[in-house]
Each structure stands twice: as structure tokens, then as C-alpha cells.
Amino acid sequence: MLAESLLLVVLGAASPVAPGEPLRWSEVRVGLPREQVGELLGQPLLRNAARGYERWIYDDGCEVQFTRGTVSAWTAPRNAPPAGAPVSRREPAPSERRL
């Protein structure tokens, strides 16, 4: 158990998603390995793991649930494009910006 916790900390230390790069929620699928989710979404704010289940929590209430190392469910941001849609990035309007 301690080894698993340490591994999660080590794996979470390096996020392949650069700051400012859009997260790719539309590419998340059931059965996707956690390593690929890390490449798509970067480091989560929090990770919980117990008894074969793992949950990664991101900003805005978004999360990914893993069962035995692969995606079993997820909650994407409300403004995320539908699965399979091309991802484009735009600057938020002044009314959409948060402090």
C-alpha cells in the first residue's frame, strides 16, 4: 500500500501537459489506461486509491474513475466538446475570465 502511494506521488510529479495547453477531455474513453489519461489531462489536483479503484480529481469538479488501472467513468467540464469533436482553443471573453 505504501509503495502504491509513493508510486502515485512519483507519477504525479511530472505532468506532460504544459501550462496553458488545453485539456483533451473529448479524447477520454472507457478502457483508456491511466498513463494515457495523464498524457491527455495532466496532473490531477488530488488522487484517491483503494481496493482496485482510483479517482483523479481536477478543477471545476471534473474527475476520472479508474477500475484496475483503466477508465471506468469520468465527469468532464460542462464546456468540453463532445467525444470525438476536434479540440480548438480560444481566449475567454472578458465576462468569462475568472480571478
Primary descriptors:
Beta-lactamase Inhibitory Protein, Chain:B, domain 1, 4-stranded antiparallel sheet, alpha+beta, single chain
Strand order of the largest sheet: 1-2-3-4
Which outline best applies? Answer: globular
What percent of residues adopt helix (DSSP H or I)?
Answer: 10-25%
> How many H/I helical runs?
2
Let me know the average pLDDT. Answer: 76
Enumerate the spans where pLDDT stays under 50 for 5 or more consecutive residues.
5-16
Our Rg estimate from Cα atoms comes to 14 Å
Question: In the CATH hierarchy, what is the class of the domain at 27-78?
Answer: Alpha Beta
Terminal-residue CA separation: 39 Å
| Estimated structural class | alpha+beta
What percent strand? Answer: 15-25%
The count of DSSP E runs of length 2 or more, i.e. the number of strands, is: 4
Order of helices and strands: HHEEEE
CATH architecture field of the domain at 27-78: 2-Layer Sandwich
Largest sheet: 4 strands, antiparallel
Q: Assign the CATH topology of the domain at 27-78.
A: Beta-lactamase Inhibitory Protein, Chain:B, domain 1
